[in-house]
């Protein structure tokens, strides 16, 4: 029988055990396990990889701990601009959105773009209009409010600095945390898919877009190789075309999923100063979770009984 599996992440960065209380650590682990269980149940019941990654990412978007959906960070103007993307490996169909607001689950909108439009990538007001036309659940600004992230934004509102999720505004880049959520899955039919969602950077300006909604950079899936979801300093992942590069190494150099991801994360990204990580799955159900930062909120579960949740190195 085909092995099926799910792997998820909730962001990477300088995540040190001494900086997190036991209560916080437990909350993160419970949230990761919940998302893993939600997505895995779909695979276990014969559902598709697309539906599994969508469900897992939705669960993470609905948790205020993560910088996606209701936990999204504040922009320079004090609002929320969210990005998301999803891709399936059988027909290479994909959907992505950027700069959207008031959409409860950005990943649901990305999935609608993939399945119910002739397009791949919608942005801003147009993406919001499409969300309304599809009857996708919208929420008022108050739904996305988090006191912690509001305080973080107020600390830097009058500067041109930006922060990556939970980091302190004056922290050097190597001490920053990259707040993105994602999932990759292989279903019982051997089809794979990946999905990624983020609230972006605190105090970001000019409609900045990171790697999360960019197919090939933050998200990629191809049944012949792998499905990948990234988290990190988005500008560097865009420049490295990180997700697609893993697929290329598998396709053209015949590398394994683990080796291809290791090459991109630990060698290629490091060379250009790219910090963060990625999760991946191949069409045989193998998974990998690789990062060059101090930690990455992550978990994996498969039909052979593996169930792993981890945060630190």
TrEMBL record:
One family name in Pfam for this protein: Asparaginase_2
Keyword Protease among record annotations: yes
Site (Cleavage): 179-180
Keywords, sorted A to Z: Autocatalytic cleavage, Hydrolase, Protease
Top-rank lineage group of the source organism: Bacteria
Entry's Gene Ontology molecular function annotations: hydrolase activity, acting on carbon-nitrogen (but not peptide) bonds, in linear amides; peptidase activity
Active site feature: 180 (nucleophile)
Coiled coil start-end: none
Residues annotated as binding substrate: 208-211, 231-234
InterPro entries given in the database record: Ntn_hydrolases_N, Peptidase_T2
CDD domains: Asparaginase_2
Biological-process GO terms, alphabetical: proteolysis
The UniProt record lists the keyword Kinase: no
The name this protein goes by in its record: Isoaspartyl peptidase
